[in-house]
Amino acid sequence: MRRFVTDKARNVVNRLASSSHAFPPRAYSPSSLSRFLTSASADLSSVSDSMAGSDYSSAPINIHSINPKVLKCEYAVRGEIVNLAQKLQEELHSNPGSHPFDEILYCNIGNPQSLGQQPITFFREVLSLCDHPSILDKSETQGLFSADSIERAFQILDQIPGRATGAYSHSQGIKGLRDTIASGIEVRDGFPANPNDLFLTDGASPAVHMMMQLLISSESDGILCPIPQYPLYSASIALHGGTLVPYYLDEASGWGLEVSELKKQLETSRAKGINVRALVVINPGNPTGQVLAEANQREIVDFCKKEGLVLLADEVYQENVYVPDKQFHSFKKVARSMGYGEKDISLVSFQSVSKGFYGECGKRGGYMEVTGFSPEIREQIYKVASVNLCSNISGQILASLVMSPPKVGDESYDSFCAEKDAILSSLARRAKTLEEAFNSMEGVSCNRAEGAMYLFPQIRLPEKAIKAAEAAKTAPDAFYARCLLNATGIVVVPGSGFGQVSGTWHFRCTILPQEDKIPDVVARLTVFHQRFMDQYRD
Amino acid sequence: MRRFVTDKARNVVNRLASSSHAFPPRAYSPSSLSRFLTSASADLSSVSDSMAGSDYSSAPINIHSINPKVLKCEYAVRGEIVNLAQKLQEELHSNPGSHPFDEILYCNIGNPQSLGQQPITFFREVLSLCDHPSILDKSETQGLFSADSIERAFQILDQIPGRATGAYSHSQGIKGLRDTIASGIEVRDGFPANPNDLFLTDGASPAVHMMMQLLISSESDGILCPIPQYPLYSASIALHGGTLVPYYLDEASGWGLEVSELKKQLETSRAKGINVRALVVINPGNPTGQVLAEANQREIVDFCKKEGLVLLADEVYQENVYVPDKQFHSFKKVARSMGYGEKDISLVSFQSVSKGFYGECGKRGGYMEVTGFSPEIREQIYKVASVNLCSNISGQILASLVMSPPKVGDESYDSFCAEKDAILSSLARRAKTLEEAFNSMEGVSCNRAEGAMYLFPQIRLPEKAIKAAEAAKTAPDAFYARCLLNATGIVVVPGSGFGQVSGTWHFRCTILPQEDKIPDVVARLTVFHQRFMDQYRD
Question: Which CATH architecture has domain A69-104+417-536?
Answer without folding.
Answer: Alpha-Beta Complex (3.90)
